[in-house]
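assembly run, all chains below
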Amino acid sequence: MIGLINYGSGNISAIANILDIANIPYTLVNKLEDFKDVNKLILPGVSSFDRTMELLEGKNFISVLHNLVVERKVPIMGICVGMQILFEGSDEGYKPGLGWIAGSVIKLSNERTPHLGWNSIDNISHNITYDVDFKKGFYFLHSYKCMPSEENVISVNSNYDEPICAIVIKDNIVGIQFHPEKSHSNGVKIFSNFHNYYQ
Amino acid sequence: MSSQLRSRFIPVLLYSNKGFVKTFNFKDPKYLGDPINVIKIFNEKNVDEITIFDIEASSKGTKIDFDLLKRVSRESRMPVCYGGGVKDADTAEKLVSIGIEKISLNSGIIEDPTLIERIANRIGKQSVVITLDVKRKWTGAYEICTQNGRRNTGITLASFLEELDYNFIGEVCVNNIDRDGTNLGYDLNLIKKHYGLIKSHATFIGGCQSAEDITHIFDKYGPIGLGASSFVVLKGKFKAVLISYPSTELLKFHGI
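ok done. output:
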């Protein structure tokens, strides 16, 4: 069952609602004991990089997440800031991230930031994007972007006068920059694919 | 690279007395129906995003209906922007914590412009929307109004936009009181004069007449946001309540 990590993120109820509608079993992970029944994880993001890390630290979730994701290769999908903290650090804050993917998070260079609205993503054949309408794309709302520096990761880009890493995939770890919970049926497919194809 | 940020067409819903309403020149509210039903219909229509303005929370000082907004956010499969009565960072943070993606600030920032930075530091600039209600003066300039259009501030839109610090703002939304509920078409002069002054994302509301009206502006200025209320909630000369949204084909895939 999917563990939906609940540590104060605002979009958690919208994600839970979509999992309900799509008949995807999940449980809310509110405290350490709740990790025991889960075999994959969804990590939503909150307002900023440091705030997200602080809240995870406050719940004492960091070491158990390391154990599950790095040692036991439990699949995890980070969304928005939940994607950004998969990296080593961010221009937005001072705290180190989880560091599971090498690279950093940098400020967008476009004058009209944030990257706000619906944008298409590059067409890629992968389980996580199965049956997705790439042209229709997804809803983005962010001012910082991930810059993976490893060679063995898959990066699916969008574009906003500069390449934007929309999806990053490294083995059992998936990061999603856009908001699948606010991207209609295309977004629902991301959750279904994560449920169906990641074991 | 083929991907390109698209323009957005946004239903604007006014909340008053526990329901969504539609006004005419900011007056005479007409009841539209149960908010959650309206959201569900917009889900089915694959709407780009929605904006909700509580037209009492600011002007009459009623409390923000967090319970409703929580249900709206849970049901909504598109992003939600909320405005009305947000005058401090705690309130903005609470709204984000219940799942509202964007927080619109209105009269509060006319009284105290430093509010913008304080709120952006708490919730991130990407979630900060500045909404300015304007009326055209006989001089041709547009004046910012507050209190649901009842109070003139004496500040012109152009001068205000030039002085804004865009480091703390994700989007500026200009709401045209003169065209509210009229279906006369967007005020092209208003957009032409001010689009270039807005150094963030720009959204214009008021007067939407047709899909051609929308695509004309998308083609010329995109990516841009256009908001509409009567066009998406009322139909026909008797202005019967009917929720609709132009198809992707009609909007020519949002200006691409």
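The first strand of chain B starts at residue 8 and ends at 16.

The two ends of chain B are 14 Å apart (CA to CA).

not gonna interpret more than that til we talk
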